[in-house]
Amino acid sequence: MNLLAILLSFGFVIIALFLSTAFKLGLGRDLIITSIRATIQLLIVGYILKMVFGFQHLFVTILMLLLMIVVASKNAAVRGKGLPFIFIKIFLTIAIVEVITQGFLLGLHIIPFAPQYVISISGMVIGNSMVIASLFLNRLKGELDMRKDEVYLVLSLGGSLKQSIFPILKQSIRSSLIPTIESQKTIGLVQLPGMMTGQIIAGADPIQAVRFQLLIVFMIMSAASLTAIILGFLIYPGLFNKNQQLDIQAWN
Q1: CA nearest 67: which of 40, 85, 44?
Q2: Which residues have C-beta within 8 Å of that of residue 58, sequence separation ≥ 6?
Q3: What SS3 class is residue 191?
Q4: Model confidence over 94-110: pLDDT tens digits?
Q5: How far is CA 92 from CA 53, 78, 126, 128, 208, in A?
Q6: CB of 141 within 8 A of CB of 250?
């Protein structure tokens, strides 16, 4: 794709701007900023990845992965602003999920240890974990707002912190995973995923592209589950004060 094709693709942004203006949605400024920001970010990342792939060095690859995890954690932490050490907990969660998934892929020689494989697949894992973390925190806050009386009741009857919060954690984890599960149900029928589409456009055999996409689908489902569960168990002790009382005022 040449530069002219990229410039012409901004026609889609113009269509969105026209519709926003016509229906008075008030999204014009956001659409322009988002388009410009996406363009700049992707161009910068493209040049960075070109240099990283050229180095073929373990330290550079790990540094790139850490940067990705930090940015993802910072973005997801916005949803949990006010919770103690929320950035660190999200960072640890995503880092653990990344180590587990990459350890599995590399340990079983499913993918070779090369920056173009590790970083590309890690981007999918980290990005998905960031979204799941945001969904989980958003749902957890909503559940606590509605069901905090249940927590007080269990605690007043002598229940442990885990017993009082577990039903809410369970529902929050379940709800945060629903979008991922639902999107996978129609994969191949309604939508052709990005990785598979990219390979086909690049001229790869469709069957080979399907095999790679299945790897991504299974990996993302696992990563999503791990993210929600690990983050849930890291967060729940911080929802209570030293007197074992529910303390979420700062979150509100």
Answers
A1: 44
A2: none
A3: strand
A4: 999 999 999 999 999 98
A5: 26, 16, 12, 15, 34
A6: no
Helices (H) and strands (E) in the chain, counts: 9, 0
Six token digits for residue 190: 């309604």
204-227 pLDDT, tens digit each: 788 888 888 888 889 999 999 999
Tokens describing residue 188: 């191949």
The answer to whether residues 223 and 121 touch, using CB atoms and an 8 Å cutoff, is no
CB-count burial class (<10 Å; 0-12, 13-18, 19+) for 61: buried
CA 38, CA 154: separation in Å to the nearest integer? 47
Are 20 and 28 contacting, i.e. CB atoms less than 8 angstroms apart? yes
Residue given tokens 């995503």 in the structure block: 94
Alpha carbon distance 199, 122 (integer Å): 18
pTM summary value? 0.84
CA–CA–CA angle 187, 188, 189 (5° rounding): 90
